[in-house]
Each structure stands twice: as C-alpha cells, then as structure tokens.
C-alpha cells in the first residue's frame, strides 16, 4: 500500500494505492491522524486505486471520520472501485460516508 | 475432480498477503469469478487476522495457522485450523450496519463480512483446536462466452463447443503461443474445447505441455477437451510419450466435439 498526501488550501487529498489489510491499515490511520493533529478538518480519501480493502482499512476510515465530525470536519470518499464499493455497502458505510464518483466532486463538496 | 491445497503459516500479520495470494490463485483455478475470489480473500484474511490479534493475543509467539483449501468446479472450501483458545464466532451478535457513525464500534465487521459473503460457515472445536470451515459457491456462467482473440483459427460449433485449429510446427515457440491461446479461451469461460490438429506437422514437448495444461485447467472447471485429426507423425509423438492415454483423440473435429459434449 502507498499513501499519497496532497495538502491543498482547504482540503487534504489522500490517495490510497494497492492493498489495505491488517498488515498496513495502521499506516493509513497514521496518515489520517497526522492531518487531524495538524488541525486539518477536511479530508478526501481517493479509493480509485485500492485493489483490496479488509475491515482493518474501514476501521481506520471510520475512526478518522468520527474524530473529524466531532470537530465540525469530515472525511469523504472518492471513486471507490466496484469491489470496495460493495464492501462499503455490505458494512452499511455507504450511508455513513459521503461518497463521490470523482475526486474533483469530493474535493468540491467541502 | 477435487484437489486439496495446504498452507501452514506462522501466526503473524505479515503473512496475510501470502494467504490472500494463496486463496486468490485457488479461486481462479476453480473458475470462481473475480468477485467471488475477492470474497474468499476477505473471509480468510478477516478470520486469520482475528486469530492472530485475539486468539493468540498478538504476535510474538510461535503459533501456526493451518489452511486447507478444497477445490471443486466453481466451489472453494476453506478450512482454517488454529490451536488458540476456543473461540466460537457463530455465537457473536450480528453487527448492526444500520447504526449511525457515532454509535459504531470500530471493530466487529470482520466476522460480519465472512457471514455475508460466504455460502456456508461452520465452526467446530476439535482436538483442542479451532476449526472454521467456509464454503464459497459460484455460479456457472450460462450465457455463451465471447471468443477471446486468438493467433490460431477458432470457431464455435454445435452446443457451444470451441474448436481451435493451430497451424504448422508446435515447437517451443508456437507451443507457448498455443498454451496462451487455450488459456485465453478458458478464462473467457469456454470449457468444452476441441483442438483440431489437421494442419499441425510437428509437436514438441512444449506443445504437449500446452495441451496438458489446458486439460488440467478444464478438469478443474468441470470442462473437457478432445483432440482430432492428428497426422500419423504427430500421433506417434503422442504414443511414444504416453500422452495418447491422457487425451480423447478422434479422427475428425465433429467426432471430437461430440466426445466433449457427452464427457
């Protein structure tokens, strides 16, 4: 898994590439926390290049979204692949996260 | 045709990608589609992660996890055995996925995914070991699959039998091309194949291997293959290598097509 972080003026775009499972999910959580600790409140996670994500990855996204919403921020998702979309739906997380078809729309939603 | 594959790994998280690769390859061989394969990877990943994190209370011990895969046509049975403390997941309350974010506990989803995506799940505690058996059944594709691009002439005849007609010398170079061409059609979903060899003037061991691999792939998916119209010299190679006993060989493509349909 690779995590590419682009700090834009208002929004931080976090692009996740590859497989996210219990071996590396905490690294993804660290990337979120780094931004949250730095005071950033608007995070977009681009999932278009995620090949695989287990519940370990979802857990990190849920934990970060919770923290952000407590502080009037949010974590929003962009362009999940069909497999990841299915997993989000199974977990009922598609109702909880705001999910956008493209990165541009997700960034623009804030 | 049932095949079993086994893997024993140390109970550490760094083995999770190994497990996923192992099961993805097996799922592919059974003919399960990508989506079903993804479900199998997740189920095995979630359960093994659970064993490592909770059963053995984290890493740093010398425990092992044993995985047995049973491969049948479009069906994969995954059995996971560990000697951690007894843990029956089937008595867990079902995760409530309709709750708002504020009420969500970050965990508990792993078992939920297993139950939702597997066709069957069974737990037993036997000889001081946890044994979890998960079955994933796929569906056989009913629609006639398209022909994959092929370097050799291919056509569909009665009942959707695919006839491939390689041309020339099946040496180590062309033999490999034949293997790829056959694999391409099998992955496309064709599982009854005739290789018509009327224009094949020579076959090397690579050519034989290409046919043998196609035979194995098809058997795994509940399909079949037959050969037809071999030149005497080519037939002799089959007889000398004993390959004539592995394949159904018929004088004409029509006879071979009939043979794969009734196989």
Features:
heterodimer, A: 110 residues, alpha/beta, Transcription Regulator spoIIAA, five-stranded mixed beta sheet, B: 263 residues, Heat Shock Protein 90, 2 domains, five-stranded antiparallel beta sheet, 7 helices, 12 strands, elongated
Kindly describe this structure.
Chain A has a single domain, classed as Transcription Regulator spoIIAA. Chain A has four helices and five strands. Chain A has helices at 25-37, 55-69, 82-90, 103-108, and strands at 2-7, 12-20, 42-53, 74-78, 99-100. Chain A has a five-stranded mixed β-sheet with strand order 1-2-3-4-5. In chain A, strand 3 (42-53), helix 2 (55-69) and strand 4 form a beta-alpha-beta unit. Chain A is globular, with a radius of gyration of 12 Å. In chain B, strands 1-2-3-5-4 form a five-stranded antiparallel β-sheet, with helices on one face. A five-stranded mixed β-sheet of chain B has the order 6-7-9-11-12, sandwiched between helices. Chain B has seven helices and twelve strands. Chain B has helices spanning 16-30, 34-55, 109-117, 172-187, 205-220, 232-241, 253-262; strands spanning 3-10, 64-72, 75-82, 120-126, 129-137, 154-156, 162-164, 168-170, 192-196, 200-203, 224-228, 248-250. In chain B, strand 11, helix 6 (232-241) and strand 12 form a beta-alpha-beta unit. With 263 residues, chain B is α/β, with parallel strands linked by helices. The interface between A and B is medium-sized, with 24 and 31 residues.
